[in-house]
Each structure stands twice: as C-alpha cells, then as structure tokens.
C-alpha cells in the first residue's frame, strides 16, 4: 500500500511537531543575517496583523468620522495635538484611517489568496494529472493571463464586479476577486508542474494498481506532495495583493471612504496635496503599505532562501575561509540530506 | 507579474508547450512556432476582456447612466448595436480588430487607434527611460551584493531591493516629487515638458513623439534639457521598481556562477576577485535577466499606468486612468487590448533574443 504521508521537508523528521511547523523550522535552520531578516519580517507582519485585529481599540476615531464633541475636524491640519498624524483635505483623521486601512488590507488578502489557492490548486491538480486537451487549453490561458500586466487584469475584474465603486463588503470582494484572477495562474503553474512530476512516481502507480480512483489519487496522494511550496507563494502573494489593492485604490477603484479605509485611495486623494507641500496625508498611508509589504516579503524571502541550498547561509565557515575539521559544510551527511529533500520538492 | 522568486538559470520564464514538443528543431522552427503562439495569446485575452466587460451590461449605460433620461439612453444603446445578441457583437468586434479598428471612445468620440499613436510614444519614452535606470542601478549593485555576499553591503543592498519592490510606484513618485520638486525645487513637478518646448517639439515635421529624440533631431538643446529635467523623476520612480528585481537576479546568478569550476580555475591563476565578478561571472549571469525581461515589460506597463497618473505624464496609462474615472469602458477595453498586443509582441521579441543568446532555450 502506498503511503504518501511523507514528512514535510523540515530540518529533522524526528523533531517535535512544533519545530517542524513551516516558519519555526525555518527559524531554527537560519543563522546570522538570515535569521535577522526572518525575525524582522515576522515582527513587521505581526504588527500588521495585530493592528488589523485591534483597529477598533487602537484608532482614536472611526475611519469615516468627521467630527467629535468639539465640532468638525479641521481640514488639512498639520500633525500634532488632537490629530497625531494630521487630517486630510476631506477632514478625516490620518492616523485613524491608516490603522483602519490595515483591516481592509488583511480582509482583501484573505479573500484573494484563499480563493486563488483553492481554484489554482484544483485546476493545477486536474490539469496536470489528467493531461490531454484540457491541460493544453488551461496552460495557454494561464500563460496569457500570467504574461499580462496584473494591474490591468485587476482593473478589468474590478469593472466587472462592481462597476468600480462599492461598499465595504462589495469592495473587499471586488478587490479580492480582481486579485484572485491575477494569482490563479501562479498557483496553477506551480501545482501543475509538481503534479506532472509526481504522476510518474512509483507511489502513484502503486495507488493505481490497488484501484484508487483518480479523485483519491489527486486529492490525497498528489495533493499532499505538490503543495509544499505553498507557504512561500502565499507570503509573496499576500504582499502583491496589498500592492494591487493599493494600485486599484490609487486609480480610483478603491472602496469609498465612507465604507472603509483604504491606503491606496488615501494616496490618490493625497496626490493633489503634494504640490502645496502637504506631506502627511500621503506619507503615512504610503509608509503603512511599504512596511507591510516589506514585512511579508522578508518572511517569504527568508523561507525561499532557507529552502534553497544555493542561497542558504551556512552555519559554520565554508567557502573562502578554510573549514575546520568539524565544519558541517557541503559534503556532510546532514547537508546532503537537506539538499536532496529540497531539490526533490 | 512582480514575483520575487528568483528564476533558476535557464528558465525561459514562460511555458511554451508547442515549442517544447518540437525537439530537435532549429532556430527557424523555434521562431516560427513562437510567432504562431502570439495569436492564441492575443485571442484569449481579447475574448476574456470582451466577455468580462460585457457581463455587467452595455458600456453606454455605464458611461451615461443617470445623466440621460431612460428613453434617450435606450436610443443610443440601439444606435450603437448593444441590444443585439452578445455573440453577434463579439464576432463583429473580432472582425473590427482584424482590420485594425479598435472602436471609438464614448466620452470624447476619438478613435482608439489614433489615441495610441498620440500617447503611445509617451509611454514608450517613459518605459525606455525607466529601463535605463533599472539596468544602471540593478546590474552593478547586484554584482556588488554577490561579491560581498553575506557582508554588510550585501545586507544593505538586499534591504534596498526589497524596499524597491515594496514601495508602490505612486508612493515613490510622491516622495520624489515632495523632495526634489516641492522642497528643493530642483526638478519640475509634473508633465513631460514646459508648454513652450512642448509646442516647439510637436510642431516639428514628422515628430516621433519621443521628446528627447525630437529635441536632438531639431538641435533644440534648451528643449532637450527641459525634457530631461521632466523625465528624471518619473524614470527613477518606475525604474527603481524593476531595479530591485534586476539586483536580486544578478546577485543570485553571479553567486551561482561564482561557484563554478572555471571561476575556481581563474582564481587559482591569480585573477583578482573584482575581475572575476565583473568579467568572468557577470556575462552568464545576464542571460536570466534577458529571459525575465519579457515579464518585466508587463510589470513596467502596469507601473507606467500608475507613474503616468502620478506625474501627469500624458501617455496611454494617463489616458487609461482618465477613462476609468469617466467610466468610458469602450476606451478602457481598447487600451487594454492594445496593451495586450504590445505585451504579446514584446514577449515574442524577448524570447527570440533569449534563444539567440542561449541555445538551451530552443529545445
């Protein structure tokens, strides 16, 4: 009986479950600069997630609040006093909108990435496993969409779904779906390539011999092995989702300021301010985008590097420095094991 | 597609199922197959864009809805033929495209093709400028990062590369504008040239539309300087986006080639580490850059839309943003389809160049 339940390519298959979890196993494998980058990324990402979760507690005002007990907020007020980061031309509090914007961003990421993973993985499995004309058509379509500027794909989708303007739920769904169409080809390509490779493996053949159905083979035997790289693509796509959302917002396809805060939309409104030297309306939402994307990218990139033996920093001296006798440089058994594991995945 | 995953050396960056099957074919056959693949790509994109944009309804309601009484709206819809079955409209649209007719915009009634000739050169100029910035910044810094691998310069450069990727072009543009135009006052805030030089350049005989080229051709050095001053900030904003990706690619690939035997042989002959990086390891590391260039062009066109809006650079992207705001979806569809064709053609050219340089691509 074929047993596809091979352990994940963690450092050590015998280590306790906690240490085999994706990010944690990467942390224990990292050294020096790479560990620093991973930790910095995790801190930034953590801050982003916490801000999004606790936005109602952190934000001094609501995202669409224009006045409090003392009357209307002043417009274009410089940072300081009651409005730590100033107010916009419309009289919104910049700090509050930056904080609430994290919530919008995370909702869009979740919607977009979840949908594209599900659709992309299913299509990739079916296409790669069954092959034939369906596979050919899907590959050509995926390539066509993949080669096209993703922002334009997202624009077309945004028009389709909402006609461009929308409420919070509608806007998040529209932006999420628009981004989904951009990402499906990426997941599709990765999963399809893996499926084509795995299809020839002996364990799939033995499953066939035992009489497992196509659906079972795809859903159980191949799926488990083909999805190893997904955490990496997930973090990279999450950052791209934020950038696409911001780009849509900047072009005026954002969510209306009365229904949610969105960083790209705020930057659109801030563009006119720059010529008169008003910097705070644009700087802070922009910084929020940059820090969030940097955080997610650092995590994704560290995972990528740690998975790739060519790029992974070595625990002990290797290369130009003469390796000592105990150095676990290339050639030792542990190194070779990791290398084959990673190459195979 | 801005993907930060480094393409392994030799990856063509695109799946070419038909090309892959024709094993043993020569270069001519590869070019032919690759050329024929342009058509299904364009066809698929055109079909998708057409049907997606029509799901929501007809463009006239989108552009004029609410501004015209219902009966007039209906009249215009019928006059434009949007009340006929969708498939009839689709085949008519395909027929129009085949004859080079991309339709007319709804809001200002211009031919979409004429718009391309007017504004396309501006977008081309911006993309070329940005590409120059990206190559000038990305390649030397990537080599430096590879040379000083895991040292301080490498760490700084990697953070720089991530920042390049993480900063949306419109935010980078905004910061550049604030710093160099508003506070320091060194460079103009927006636009492609002063009105006076713009007039001088567009009244030339047979202008290319690429302002610096026109200025050089007419020997108008004042206009040339003016055009350059306007070009700096948009080019840097858009170029840095791609520079980060080039930097990473060069770094990864130079590190890869530095581990090869012939580098080791060079090192043992006493060639300096600097020379090894700049002369020996550098050239093979450039091949992946050319192969990902095709995808980068798509990224640049997407970025150009945002850059043009930020700097009021009157190109295709600027127009696209305007038509989006005006809900003129005929114009949007026309520009998107045009860009699809441009992307497909440039990808073809890039793939051919890659095949000429690297025989492994030909299968």
TrEMBL record, chain A:
Keywords recorded for this protein, A-Z: Cell membrane, Membrane, Transmembrane, Transmembrane helix, Transport
Pfam families named among the record's database cross-references: BPD_transp_1 (PF00528), OppC_N (PF12911)
Residue ranges of domain ABC transmembrane type-1 in the record: 102-300
Cell division among keywords: no
Biased segments, Low complexity type: 318-334
GO biological process, one term: transmembrane transport
A cellular-component GO term for this protein: plasma membrane
Membrane topology: Multi-pass membrane protein
Main location: membrane
The family this protein is said to belong to: Belongs to the binding-protein-dependent transport system permease family.
Protein's name according to its UniProt entry: Binding-protein-dependent transport system inner membrane protein
Native organism: Arthrobacter nitrophenolicus
Automatic annotation (TrEMBL), chain B:
Membrane topology classification: Multi-pass membrane protein
GO cellular-component term (any): plasma membrane
Domain of life: Bacteria
Pfam families: BPD_transp_1, BPD_transp_1_N
Xref: InterPro entries: BPD_transp_1_N (IPR045621), MetI-like (IPR000515), MetI-like_sf (IPR035906)
GO biological process terms on file: transmembrane transport
Subcellular localization, as worded in the UniProt entry: Cell membrane
Main localization, broad class: membrane
Transmembrane region(s): 31-53, 126-147, 159-186, 227-250, 285-306, 330-357
All residue ranges annotated as the ABC transmembrane type-1 domain in the record: 120-354
Alphabetic keyword roster: Cell membrane, Membrane, Transmembrane, Transmembrane helix, Transport
Family per similarity comment: Belongs to the binding-protein-dependent transport system permease family.
Annotated protein name in UniProt: Dipeptide/oligopeptide/nickel ABC transporter permease
Organism: Arthrobacter nitrophenolicus
């Amino acid at each position: 009986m074929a047993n596809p339940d091979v352990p994940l390519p963690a450092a050590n298959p015998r280590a306790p479950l906690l240490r085999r979890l994706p990010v944690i196993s990467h942390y224990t494998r990292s050294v020096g600069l790479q560990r620093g980058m991973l930790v910095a990324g995790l801190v930034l990402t953590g801050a982003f997630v916490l801000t999004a979760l606790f936005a109602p507690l952190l934000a001094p005002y609501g995202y669409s609040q224009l006045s409090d007990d003392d009357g209307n907020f002043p417009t274009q007020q410089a940072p300081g006093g009651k409005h730590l980061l100033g107010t916009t031309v419309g009289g919104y509090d910049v700090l509050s909108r930056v904080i609430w914007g994290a919530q919008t961003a995370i909702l869009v990421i979740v919607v977009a990435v979840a949908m594209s993973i599900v659709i992309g993985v299913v299509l990739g499995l079916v296409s790669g496993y069954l092959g034939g004309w369906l596979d050919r058509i899907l590959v050509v379509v995926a390539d066509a969409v993949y080669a096209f500027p993703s922002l334009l794909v997202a624009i077309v989708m945004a028009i389709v779904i909402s006609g461009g303007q929308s409420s919070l739920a509608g806007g998040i769904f529209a932006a999420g779906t628009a981004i989904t169409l951009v990402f499906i080809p990426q997941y599709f390509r990765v999963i399809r390539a893996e499926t084509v490779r795995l299809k020839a493996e002996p364990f799939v053949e033995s499953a066939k011999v035992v009489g497992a159905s196509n659906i079972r083979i795809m859903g159980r035997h191949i799926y488990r092995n083909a999805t190893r790289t997904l955490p990496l693509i997930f973090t990279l796509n999450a950052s791209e989702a934020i950038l696409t959302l911001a780009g849509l917002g900047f072009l005026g396809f954002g969510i209306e300021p009365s229904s949610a805060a969105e960083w790209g939309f705020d930057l659109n409104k801030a563009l006119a301010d720059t010529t008169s030297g008003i910097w705070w309306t644009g700087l802070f939402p922009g910084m929020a985008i940059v820090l969030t994307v940097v955080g997610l990218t650092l995590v994704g990139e560290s995972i990528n590097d740690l998975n790739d033996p060519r790029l992974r920093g070595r625990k002990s001296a290797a290369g130009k420095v003469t390796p000592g006798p105990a150095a676990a440089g290339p050639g030792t058994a542990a190194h070779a094991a990791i290398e084959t594991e990673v190459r195979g995945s | 597609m801005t993907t930060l995953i480094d393409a392994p050396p030799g990856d063509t960056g695109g799946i070419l199922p038909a090309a892959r099957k024709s094993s043993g074919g020569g270069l001519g056959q590869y070019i032919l197959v690759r050329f024929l693949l342009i058509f299904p790509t364009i066809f698929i994109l055109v079909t998708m864009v057409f049907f997606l944009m029509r799901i929501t309804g007809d463009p006239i309601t989108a552009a004029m809805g609410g501004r015209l009484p219902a009966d007039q709206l209906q009249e215009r819809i019928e006059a434009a033929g949007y009340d006929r079955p969708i498939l009839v409209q689709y085949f008519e649209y395909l027929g129009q495209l085949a004859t080079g007719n991309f339709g007319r915009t709804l809001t200002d009634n211009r031919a979409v093709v004429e718009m391309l000739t007017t504004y396309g050169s501006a977008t081309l100029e911006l993309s070329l400028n940005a590409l120059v910035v990206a190559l000038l910044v990305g390649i030397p810094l990537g080599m430096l990062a590879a040379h000083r691998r895991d040292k301080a310069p490498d760490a700084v450069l990697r953070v720089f590369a991530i920042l390049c990727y993480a900063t949306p072009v419109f935010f980078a543009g905004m910061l550049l504008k604030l710093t160099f135009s508003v506070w320091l006052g060194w460079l103009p805030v927006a636009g492609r040239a002063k009105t006076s030089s713009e007039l001088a350049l567009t009244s030339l005989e047979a202008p290319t539309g690429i302002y610096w080229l026109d200025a050089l051709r007419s020997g108008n050095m004042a206009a040339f300087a003016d055009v350059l001053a306007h070009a700096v900030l948009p080019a840097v904003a858009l170029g840095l986006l791609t520079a980060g990706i080039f930097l990473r690619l060069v770094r990864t690939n130079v590190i890869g080639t530095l581990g090869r035997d012939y580098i080791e042989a060079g090192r043992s002959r006493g060639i300096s580490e600097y020379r090894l990086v700049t002369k020996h390891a550098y050239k093979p590391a450039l091949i992946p850059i050319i192969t990902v260039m095709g995808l980068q062009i798509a990224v640049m066109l997407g970025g150009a839309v945002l850059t043009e809006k930020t700097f009021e650079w009157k190109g295709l992207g600027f127009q696209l943003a305007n038509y989006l705001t005006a809900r003129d979806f005929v114009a949007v569809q026309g520009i998107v389809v045009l860009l699809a064709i441009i992307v497909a053609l440039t990808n073809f050219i890039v793939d051919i160049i890659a095949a000429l340089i690297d025989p492994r691509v030909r299968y």
